């Protein structure tokens, strides 16, 4: 499997890697973990060390992330659910600091699911400040899917309580795994297997194995979607686990070191932590290893996951891929699971419904007129452009919406492209209100 060629990553000028033996000789790679030994001349050798997606994948597999976990349903939190078709369950997670863990999840089935019927399923990965969500599960069960929303920080249902830092947070219990520590603040200072991100990736993989083992799940039609931090995770999970029929990362993307918010947070880490993140957890390392069809979802003005990095993530994907870019989309869990295009895309993959209506290749590029083909049957098209990309994260950053002309006979979309436009994309909408987008283009870079 090829490794991604990312020009902005400095090569690890640290050691000679003996790939066949899995041993690093010489200076230890920053952030690498393992036991040190020494020969008679004082040369240090590090076994069980490495870096990058394949190293992480090996450690996940070695720790049991692909195994089917033990699980049981619980009625303790029935007051929190919305119907009898949604149940709480606990499944065994990976060990944390040598102790066993359990992960809570909401599990839901379509109402009146017949015994023996096989239906598609989806793993739901929440973002920062979130937990396992009943309404999210219901959105999918109402559309004929089995769904599992997992709590990634050891949370259990119930009202938030005041945490040690004085902030309100969801309750945990005696078998909880780690909580997220800011932006990768636990890397290097904590062994890989005890880092929150490692556990979060493993939890989703374990949930997938659990779903594949259930009698009503079509094991070849399991997808995954995540919101915000869950989108970051989705991009990483699908780079080490190729069992998914589809993926829908919402907001979360790669190249985070090129976003205003996350570049600032990265700068607060020490050099060894930054290097560890860039070599082991940066989502753009994992996207080129994905094999499933993917719908990338974002808003034009998302402060956390700006359009520059989001577009680069889309471009790095080597497989079947689609875009949904909503003008001024709000950032949040509910906003992230609302777009109907998410469910239409999943149906297209798992139920062989109508393919997405898409803006296709550009026929005419220039500073004055934009023209592109489209596929499918669309009712409307819009051009979005901005005249300033100097600061992707500024508060008053604006995208201008202008209607585009649609030719049903020629299957083309055309619009006037203002001289000052420095970035643009096209949205198309069909009669059902389903929207898809073209990739963002920058005329000066074409």
TrEMBL record:
Annotated PROSITE patterns: PRO_ENDOPEP_SER (PS00708)
InterPro entries per record: AB_hydrolase_fold (IPR029058), AXE1_dom (IPR008391), FrsA_esterase (IPR050261), Pept_S9_AS (IPR002471), PhoPQ-act_pathogen-rel_PqaA (IPR009199)
Keyword Cell cycle attributed: no
GO biological process: proteolysis
Keyword Nucleotide-binding: no
Coiled-coil spans in chain: none
Recorded GO MF terms: serine-type endopeptidase activity
Entry keywords, A to Z: Hydrolase
Domain annotation Acetyl xylan esterase: ranges: 78-252
Protein name as catalogued: PhoPQ-activated pathogenicity-related protein
């Amino acid at each position: 499997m090829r490794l991604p060629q990312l020009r902005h990553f400095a090569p690890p000028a640290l050691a000679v890697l003996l790939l066949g033996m899995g041993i690093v000789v010489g200076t230890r790679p920053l952030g690498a973990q393992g036991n040190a030994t020494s020969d008679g001349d004082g040369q240090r050798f590090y076994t069980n060390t490495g870096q990058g997606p394949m190293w992480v994948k090996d450690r996940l597999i070695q720790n049991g992330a692909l195994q089917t976990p033990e699980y049981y349903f619980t009625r303790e939190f029935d007051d929190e659910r919305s119907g009898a078709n949604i149940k709480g369950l606990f499944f065994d997670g990976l060990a944390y600091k040598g102790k066993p863990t359990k992960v809570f999840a909401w599990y839901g089935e379509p109402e009146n699911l017949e015994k023996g019927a096989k239906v598609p399923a989806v793993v739901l990965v929440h973002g920062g400040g979130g937990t396992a969500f009943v309404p999210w599960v219901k959105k999918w069960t109402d559309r004929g899917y089995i769904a599992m929303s997992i709590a990634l920080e050891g949370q259990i249902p119930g009202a938030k309580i005041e945490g040690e830092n004085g902030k309100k947070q969801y309750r945990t219990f005696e078998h909880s795994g780690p909580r997220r520590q800011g932006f990768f603040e636990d890397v290097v200072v904590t062994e890989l297997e005890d880092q929150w991100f490692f556990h979060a990736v493993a939890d989703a993989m374990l949930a997938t194995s659990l779903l594949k083992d259930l009698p009503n799940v079509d094991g070849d039609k399991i997808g995954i979607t995540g919101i915000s931090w869950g989108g970051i995770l989705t991009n990483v999970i699908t780079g080490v686990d190729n069992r998914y029929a589809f993926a829908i990362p919402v907001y979360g993307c790669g190249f985070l070191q090129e976003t205003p918010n996350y570049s600032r947070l990265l700068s607060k880490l020490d050099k060894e932590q930054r290097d560890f993140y860039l070599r082991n957890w940066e989502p753009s390392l994992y996207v080129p290893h994905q094999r499933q069809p993917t719908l990338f979802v974002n808003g034009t003005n998302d402060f956390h996951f700006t359009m520059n990095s989001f577009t680069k993530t889309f471009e790095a994907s080597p497989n079947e891929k689609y875009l949904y870019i909503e003008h001024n989309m709000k950032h949040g869990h509910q906003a992230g699971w609302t777009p109907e295009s998410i469910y239409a895309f999943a149906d297209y993959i798992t139920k062989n419904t109508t393919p997405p209506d898409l803006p296709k290749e550009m026929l005419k590029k220039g500073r004055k007129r934009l023209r592109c083909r489209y596929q499918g049957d669309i009712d409307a098209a819009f051009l979005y452009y901005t005249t300033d990309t100097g600061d992707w994260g500024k508060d008053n950053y604006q995208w201008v919406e202008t209607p585009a002309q649609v030719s049903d006979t020629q299957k083309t979309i055309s619009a006037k492209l203002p001289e000052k436009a420095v970035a643009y994309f096209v949205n198309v909408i069909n009669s059902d209100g389903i929207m898809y987008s073209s990739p963002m283009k920058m005329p000066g870079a074409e």
